[in-house]
Amino acid sequence: xxxxxxxxxxxxxxxxxxxxxxxxxxxxxxxxxxxxxxxxxxxxxxxxxxxxxxxxxxxxxxxxxxxxxxxxxxxxxxxxxxxxxxxxxxxxxxxxxxxxxxxxxxxxxxxxxxxxxxxxxxxxxxxxxxxxxxxxxxxxxxxxxxxxxxxxxxxxxxxxxxxxxxxxxxxxxxxxxxxxxxxxxxxxxxxxxxxxxxxxxxxxxxxxxxxxxxxxxxxxxxxxxxxxxxxxxxxxxxxxxxxxxxxxxxxxxxxxxxxxxx
Amino acid sequence: xxxxxxxxxxxxxxxxxxxxxxxxxxxxxxxxxxxxxxxxxxxxxxxxxxxxxxxxxxxxxxxxxxxxxxxxxxxxxxxxxxxxxxxxxxxxxxxxxxxxxxxxxxxxxxxxxxxxxxxxxxxxxxxxxxxxxxxxxxxxxxxxxxxxxxxxxxxxxxxxxxxxxxxxxxxxxxxxxxxxxxxxxxxxxxxxxxxxxxxxxxxxxxxxxxxxxxxxxxxxxxxxxxxxxxxxxxxxxxxxxxxxxxxxxxxxxxxxxxxxxxxxxxxxxxxxxxxxxxxxxxxxxxxxxxxxxxxxxxxxxxxxxxxxxxxxxxxxxxxxxxxxxxxxxxxxxxxxxxxxxxxxxxxxxxxxxxxxxxxxxxxxxxxxxxxxxxxxxxx
Lengths: 262, 379
Description:
The structure holds two protein chains of two kinds.
Chain A: H1 2-6, H2 10-15, E1 19-30, E2 33-34, E3 41-43, E4 46-64, E5 69-71, E6 73-74, E7 81-82, E8 85-89, E9 107-113, E10 117-124, H3 128-131, E11 158-164, E12 167-173, E13 176-181, E14 184-190, E15 195-198, E16 208-211, H4 212-216, E17 225-227, H5 236-243, E18 259-261
Chain B: H1 3-14, E1 25-26, E2 32-33, H2 53-63, H3 76-79, H4 127-136, H5 149-157, H6 162-169, H7 178-190, H8 198-203, H9 212-221, H10 228-231, E3 253-254, H11 275-278, E4 287-288, H12 310-319, E5 323-324, E6 331-332, H13 350-361, H14 366-370
């Protein structure tokens, strides 16, 4: 008798689209020239070489033509992806990337219901709920010392280092003005979590381009090409603008201009 | 209240507590035996990292192991030297690759009682988390292990002694790990208790333990004229204290008028104090007032070692702030609008200054500086 009662439900069940795998490739480039550990690329009139590039992304969601958002469910791989957060690692240990391990992680593996999507949105960084766990007992994706923001508690959201025209290049981003204790942070006055919108976005086709030239070109005139996240640092004005972040409040004012569809 | 009467009361309360106690260690019922005098409360131990003799032994071995630095030249003990109460005599610390730290290595006297670690970090509450900073920090590089966890663990796993030592310390999770490294080091650090200075013996009833001069110095230290005890108070002579008897840890950071670079109270850019972490302008120049125990052996003084002697430290507080008349950091700290309201300055005669210095010297615990339990286990 029970089976008969189920029959009218079957058409409803068939309407829900089953989750399909989605792979999202990320590409680091400098105004279109791919960034590699092995070679320099020109930026302005000086060569740029990156030795370190890692960043976190979270809250990935696909957007349909009507503007409705559908969250992506990240594969829980016990290494790079934890809950809704993923660590992207572009260093292959070759060339200038001496401190990187050979393994990279530049493609996010996730699932989402099949559908007609036109854009991808996400945030850079680690969400507050995951960012301030006990650093001694963190899940693998959040345990690496390279991305720890030790003195503030939490993680670096983006870490870019290298040399540009003979000057050291350093961009570190994380939440600042945090309160509480490491392991029990109650809040941070400057979250510094950029919004990202990639459009048009065709799952399986579109690559997410990170234009590091766009990110740092505003540092060209400074004696040191650095921004370590502080509101008073000269380099953070142009870098925060490229991140779409309000320099004073650390709020996301607009989608980060340096991230676009490829 | 005259100090004499206060001490008599203390003697009455303390009674015979100064009698020999069994050495600190595991007791039969599993609780850690701290071996403390009566005027010390036990330190707080986090529930997720209980004390054990095996963990202390492992932590001590790791503390003195130069393989915890990437280039093998530095251990924790390189900057935390027992004879100097676990500091290193430098104004600013020097990392394994030659980078100079903005601040001096802090002493580890009674570090188990510190509610906050470091000179000016209001977020750093646990020794386990502090240990991560010199190991993996990059600004500056200290032990240089950022991104090199596999190298560190490979060294430990391949060692003749460590695998068994980790298994003994962490029987439910025996493999070496970064977590266990910092847990063990923190556990060893918690045993670094200094409670047997001449002052402590005086408090416990030995009226001859402090000279008459040092007793006058103690009275001056506790007086409303000098007010030292406002920031360096309690049994550990600090305002940032945690122990089993406190409902909530005491945390305090103070601007002591060391600098006033811009006339608005600014400190030099490499050491703005708590401001660097909090982002709050009112936190400019605020630093922790550390314990004064063993202070006579931890020169130079202040977060950047910019005051060379205890005599000059007293001059600084007597003046209510420091005036630098030349150089890149010139300015009158006594006129800083941000300096602590407790820093009013005071008159101190030369004889009284000698008395205070004698008292501060009486906080030196020679046994702590030479205790073989805290020294390099060797091989």
